Description:
The structure is a homodimer of 635-residue chains.
Chain A: E1 3-7, H1 15-24, E2 29-33, H2 34-38, H3 44-53, E3 57-64, H4 74-92, E4 96-100, H5 111-127, E5 131-135, H6 146-156, E6 161-166, H7 167-172, E7 188-193, H8 203-209, H9 221-230, E8 236-239, H10 244-248, H11 251-275, E9 293-302, H12 305-317, E10 321-326, E11 331-336, E12 339-344, H13 349-358, E13 361-369, H14 372-381, E14 400-402, E15 408-413, H15 420-423, E16 424-426, E17 436-447, H16 448-461, E18 465-466, E19 470-474, E20 477-485, E21 492-498, H17 504-512, E22 516-524, H18 527-536, H19 546-555, H20 560-569, E23 572-576, E24 579-585, E25 594-601, H21 611-634
Parallel strand pairs in A: 1-2, 1-8, 2-3, 3-4, 4-5, 5-6, 6-7, 7-8, 9-12, 13-15, 17-21, 22-25
Antiparallel strand pairs in A: 9-13, 10-11, 10-16, 11-12, 14-15, 17-22, 18-20, 19-20, 20-21, 23-24, 24-25
Helix pairs in contact in A: 1-11, 3-4, 4-5, 5-6, 9-11, 11-16, 19-20
Amino acid sequence: MLRWSIATVCMGGTLETKLAAAARAGFRTIEIFENDLTFFSGKPREVRAMAEDLGLEIVALQPLRDFEGAPEPMRARNFDRAERKFDLMDELGASMLCICSSVAEDASGEVDVCARDLADLSDRAARRGFRIGYEALAWGRHVKDWTQAWQIVERADRGNLGIVLDSFHIYARKNDVAPIARLPADRIALVQVADAPGILMDAMSLSRHHRCFPGQGDWDMTAYLEAVAATGYAGAISLEIFNDQFRGAPANAIARDGMRSLQALGEALDQTRLARGEAPLAISRALPKPAKIAGVEFIEFASSGTQSTRLEAELAGLGFTRVGRHKSKDVDLYRQNDVNIVVNREQDGFAHSFYLVHGPSVCAIALRFDDPARALERANALGAPTYHGRIGPGEALIPAVAGVENSLIYMVKAGAHNAWNKDFDFIGSPDVSGPLERIDHLSNVVRRSEFLSWLTFYKAVLGFSDEPQVELADPYGAFYSRVISAADRSVRIPINIADGGSTTVSRFIEAFGGGGVQQIALSTKDIFAFVERARAGGVRFLDIPDNYYEDLSARYDLDTALIEKMRVLGILYDRHKGGEFFHIYTAMFDQRFFFEILERRNYDLFGAANTPVRLAAQANEFDQGLRDRAMLETE
Amino acid sequence: MLRWSIATVCMGGTLETKLAAAARAGFRTIEIFENDLTFFSGKPREVRAMAEDLGLEIVALQPLRDFEGAPEPMRARNFDRAERKFDLMDELGASMLCICSSVAEDASGEVDVCARDLADLSDRAARRGFRIGYEALAWGRHVKDWTQAWQIVERADRGNLGIVLDSFHIYARKNDVAPIARLPADRIALVQVADAPGILMDAMSLSRHHRCFPGQGDWDMTAYLEAVAATGYAGAISLEIFNDQFRGAPANAIARDGMRSLQALGEALDQTRLARGEAPLAISRALPKPAKIAGVEFIEFASSGTQSTRLEAELAGLGFTRVGRHKSKDVDLYRQNDVNIVVNREQDGFAHSFYLVHGPSVCAIALRFDDPARALERANALGAPTYHGRIGPGEALIPAVAGVENSLIYMVKAGAHNAWNKDFDFIGSPDVSGPLERIDHLSNVVRRSEFLSWLTFYKAVLGFSDEPQVELADPYGAFYSRVISAADRSVRIPINIADGGSTTVSRFIEAFGGGGVQQIALSTKDIFAFVERARAGGVRFLDIPDNYYEDLSARYDLDTALIEKMRVLGILYDRHKGGEFFHIYTAMFDQRFFFEILERRNYDLFGAANTPVRLAAQANEFDQGLRDRAMLETE
């Protein structure tokens, strides 16, 4: 039976921790990486007992290295080594030993020699009831491609010997996956999956540091598994991810992410098969399909006291009107066209806890779904439990799950605009028209070590897609950004990844105490009129150096008067394929968040060309803040 | 005149900060990277005034991108763009504009077309008194190699047009540097230097993230500069290093490291020239030659109270004898054969300050030099000032400089054994023979962001050499290690680089509050006898799992009785090229340091094969410590 599996090497911590985490995430099958056993301070049979208690089958022990093609007397020693591993497997209750192609300098690459070694080993294994799997390492001395490994397995021709396929080595060697479909299913010993980013790097470094779960990288995991499934293979499909960051993270979170990524992969594979009229494989229990995302219903700020006063003054300056007051809580609703902003000043409950940890900040986002109940069911099925908050009598229960740094992601019904009436008393019917039309995007900052986990959350759990990663320069370092977006692009979230140093992104992590929403981008149809009015209303925008406009006039044949107008107002400009982009940033609010106001004219990007200017200006603003504080302290 | 220069892009912070840092480090010439100007909030002429005040010549403004080979109307716009840059150069007081080869998709790669564009631009530049430099980017659309850039410059044939050479692009493209020697000196506009690690990676990623100062990477900077010098070139030699970590570090430290690396490079170049009977270039002021390192005279622990009692009990257990008491301070000397360990329990002064910040720890190392006065002079000349401590009347003044985390590196005269008598009262003439013979090595832990800086310190300032970097797996992540060693190998220091996560190395950084000495490795001739005695004397060693010995017996044909003896005593084993290595670790002292005792039998490595076992055992010990503490707290 096809089933998901995970190798202990994916997770950090002791072997006990790893087994417990795998079982808790829903795995029923594991591979044991021998180092984990060597470092374990108990007996192998204790591992067997632990695995049995947890309902885990040990599908394989691996790897035995540098086995095949060795000259004597090493060959004889290798068989002795293998017998010791068989003893270990007896104690462990493992049925298969995986051998990876030799990297030894004196190993023979002769197919006949290697096949004879593997045949002899398989015969010995057969006497003890074991199977042997043989895998091509991308950096093997002679055997690098799965086709070479297969040639040797076929030549050895033993019933208990099969090939181990690993998407990592196959894609790292740029091998074609389609011919895998022609392998006899009973000669596939084990199937391993690992994704990786599409970067040029030697295979060994890529393998050691950049392997990731399916969907976190750039390789076509579906095509690989399609070819495997076409053989009729019915064994374990096992995650084998070497990744320092994974080993540094809690094992439970990594095992959960691994299972999420496999379930999403199985789902994608079944969709492909169904589309071609083939039966679904249904490796995972049926997963509720992702609900359709249809925009952001509201964002909620946790705030308090004078910070709240300043925030609300800024919202007013940006053209928002206070339209509602919560029936039972110290919560107000601000609105402008389609944009709802909730300001929560409660002194207990979720928002206040969030405020105490993070300061004034976006504590929740409500996403509109066509079927929020299904969205929640899917999240639950993928290990994201429902958040239950405190509600007043008669108020709406809005289902939510935990997002970055335990902020909330509410799931609301798209188009159910009168749902607000349950919780809020509306103040007359004020004019909510204004220059700002909708939330264009929200940017999230996350720690580098948590990025892949949140990527899998947004993609597998919520049903977002991702765009290629870009890299941005900051005066104090660099950071990476990857955009996730809903299918209809009604929600787009650039995720900015902090990697130490003192970049704006890292300063946010530090000031905020973790990841969160740093930027709220709102669209307008006339940014010039908007900025003039907002400046008059006291909104502070980020100072852009005059040299930026000098440079702009050298780069583009823009009208001098237009450039001057941009300079005076502090508006930035970008151009792409004939489209134009005008945008501006508010001054940073307590080092935590800022608003971007933007006007798109046939332009679909995010103005990344101006990001270094913004970052430098924010760094200036921050330095100035430090200087001001130092001045105050010395006065 | 040949002179050292630095590009503003090497450093982090605002343009003011960068200029000041460059001047402070001794640079008299800088290149301005245009982004720094765009982000600067003042006028270009203010930059000129700042540079003049600091005595800095602005050698070039760069880069103008995607210039040559553009089709009309882009070509005309490019000339307009260039004129705007000339305006800027006028204001800045820069005399040269650097152009890097076009990456534009529609650029022509025709030599004649590109040469005509550059000739026309040079003519325009000549009218305004400027020079043009042209550089091949490794990822240029057509022009990738310096030989191609040279072909275009030669064809254009203008007196104020020259080639810009950058070791980064040249080595990234694996170009030969020797033919550079045949270039006419007056056609070399500018020479840039950047080193990089010898890893396989696409040139652009390598350039953006892994460029480093000469001597920090793996490329042959001396061969490159030799070829340049052979032309008779007499302009600026400029550091152009894009490195996020550098931009995240204080600009002063980076500029200082850049100058150190250039001075060491100039020195190496002159040594090569002198050896061949050529005149030295003497680009830097004469630098005192590195003094010869001849071992470790002592290591000094900062300690206090019961921690000191425990530490001294451990030293006694390891066979050390207390032989001396400081004349004026609460400081004792422990000795065993050639190993001196100083325990400092003073309640004020340097060691105590160090203790307050870092806890019980190695606060100083004394290195033996053939000429400590020259060692100190060299350090001073390279920006490492002398540390002046408090001494008592009649006591020896030992010169020192600051090392990692402001620990001290004392410089003492090799063989001057009776220098101790000035400061210490000796207790009779005790027997200091014992099983431990000498300090084999000391390992340093440093933060990743500080590693390159300390590498340059050890190499350029103190005269160590380095060995290739290795990578080690920890149960909770991975870390890197690079060994620096004295020419006679009397001092070897593996530097372990912490890269976040919760590896043993990172836990050290956290517990210690920065980098420092984590391991003191002492050699013995009979480790078995030593461990038996030390265990009987109450020394606690690291617990090694039985499975390690199972694995050992599978890997090596070792005598069963020997393996059993190792198991009982907790001794680890490695083998390399017929040599054998036996070693053991003491339990971690307050998460800060531990001793390694080792016996080498024709073996010259560090037992890295066993490092994962040690790390796993230390992680177990740490986890156990956490559990014990949790138990205590819940009881």
